[in-house]
Amino acid sequence: MSDKPAYLDETLSFEERARDLVSRMTLEEKASQLVYNAPAIPRLGVPSYNWWNEALHGIARAGTATMFPQAIAMAATFDEKLIHDVADIISTEARAKYHESQRKGDHGIYKGLTFWSPNINIFRDPRWGRGHETYGEDPYLTGRLGVAFVKGLQGDDPKYLKAAACAKHYAVHSGPESERHSFNAVVSKKDLYETYLPAFKECVKEGKVESVMGAYNRTNGEPCCGSKTLLKDILRGEWGFNGHVVSDCWAIKDFHEHHHVTSTAPESAALAISNGCDLNCGVTYLNLLIALKEGLITEDLIDTAAVRLMTTRMKLGMFDNPQHVPYASISFEVNDCDEHRAFALEVSKRSLVLLKNENNILPLNKDKIKSIAVIGPNADSRTALIGNYYGTASRYTTVLEGIQQAVGDKVRVYYAEGCHLYRDRASSLGEHKDQFAEAVSVAERADVVILCLGLDSTIEGEEGDASNEYASGDKNHLNLPGLQQELMETVYKTGKPIILVLLSGSALAVTWADQNIPAIIQGWYPGAEGGKAIASLIFGEFSPSGKLPVTFYRSTEELPDFRDYSMYNRTYRYMQQEALYPFGYGLSYTTFEYSDLTSDKTEIPAGESINFRIKVKNTGTWESWETVQLYLKDVEASVEVPRWQLRGIRPVFLKPGEEAEVEFSLTGRDMALIDNDGKCILEPGKFRVFIGGSQPDSRSEKLNGSKVLSAVFTVTGEPIELPY
Fold this sequence. Notes:
By secondary structure, the protein is α/β, with parallel strands linked by helices. Among the domains are: 1-48 and 263-319, no CATH class; 338-562, Glycoside hydrolase family 3 C-terminal domain (Rossmann fold); 592-721, Immunoglobulins (Immunoglobulin-like), CATH 2.60.40.10. 28% of the residues lie in helices and 17% in strands. It has 22 helices and 25 strands. The longest helix is centred in the first third of the chain and has 24 residues, at 80-103. The protein is globular.
């Protein structure tokens, strides 16, 4: 008979082993494991472990790794497989770095296998500074890409996790950043279940995400990291989540310091653990033993949390023979390898969105150009490549460098910074508009100007991370900051053709540019070698195919109050005015023709599925990706519903003259609405389906020069309530 303890018996289930391990710990040892920097328990062979790690668009804050475009940029690909493959590479590099760190005895922060990614909050307001961490404003797109990222990160082994993903920030969280530690997000049941929860539900139920992180704010009065409604009733009750919950960092101390729902640290710790928050990113759980002594909690709650956390570590193979864990043999050499960097460049190309291309000024023919002026605060900025939560790339290519590399010695490339990103002078000792004259001088000498404006993560990001002089990471308005608009208008007066490249993680109200500048590219934060991707697009090495995952508005004034979490007049689903550039929009160098939209039925009983087919043909001269989008409109709903909403995405790659038939299937759940009580109801009546390369709104039709095809079908029978 073996003396080996049960927790080391690899034939038992991970939960059985975790229970056995926790049963051998003292009370103090169990409690010590519930903070993010869990100490070692040498007598049980438990090494120290730091749970805090980030992988938003590559391994972050842990040295060199492949750096992909920021999450919002990847969302513009509308491609689930691409996002899955990105996350698979991230977790491959995670394993490579983790095992090397272990061999070197480095158990520090950002060195583990538990990643607090993806961020699947809904980007409901373009002023929110952290919106570029998300997959945009649409619940369906966010859910599909979130599930793809989770599955790619966690791997497909039937027994072990490759890495542990974490869906954050649960829930109803999207600013304001400056008030996040005290803010109460008030939301209706309809908006909660229709907009703010679907992506989390998908990541839990379909993605099997291992972890969920609570948000800083309160939702309807309850602090999210201690919310009975969110954590007990919905997450574990309705959705059956059995992974672990982690607090946002130092969020639990906000309970008593800022939300004032408790009075002391032990009370805050008790509220969080009682409602199912297992792991504290912070130190408030150091008060758990006091809470126990004061009778605020039972030891069972500590046991439950410890078992959940040890189960995750077991799933990652941390207590098993490395030879039995398939991912433990990944070599350090695969980190930042040529293949991974090449793929990151491909993702950068797929993420770029062509917003305007008057008279087909793009692509530029470099054989017919003698000089180019590259101007703007983001032209030679590495910061504008990387977004936030970034790692260290081994190579960077700014837009200026990308242009220089693309044209070689044949074309003279002039460069001028033009202005600071948001201040009124580029040099601290300079005078107002100190770089304008140089910008005009280089523009005058050039055949064409590439103007690089926008934002970067120093002013658009997380409270405490981004510049406090610029709204704690949020945007006060949607205009270009500082002198950028004036710089653009000044360069425009030279009469030279301008290609505007916007590097930003969110929508900007570039109405003047839309009226006056012939070509506009939304480049996002395109990753370490994003400048190479942008130059490739400009000079026609590929056709752009990105689509906007957010709405570009015409002005700040048309936005609802930032603190209002109602979806009324927000995002493409409920907005009442015409967009500048709509969600789902993006131009190509080629043209696509849609035809033969058919369905297998025109009438179905409630609860049945219906299938649609459509043909899409590349009628232009460039090979290109195209994102076929399906939107559904409930024509006869009994409550207010979105005017239409995304319900299907299919990226297809077509050569000139090539045609493909694309299929979609709509389920009863796809057709169901969320009523005012938060119930999921499938109502009989008429529905309209729209399928094409964009939304069916008039602005998209005008910009694309074509209408989206549509079909009507009817659902018969009585209303039925479906599981959410």
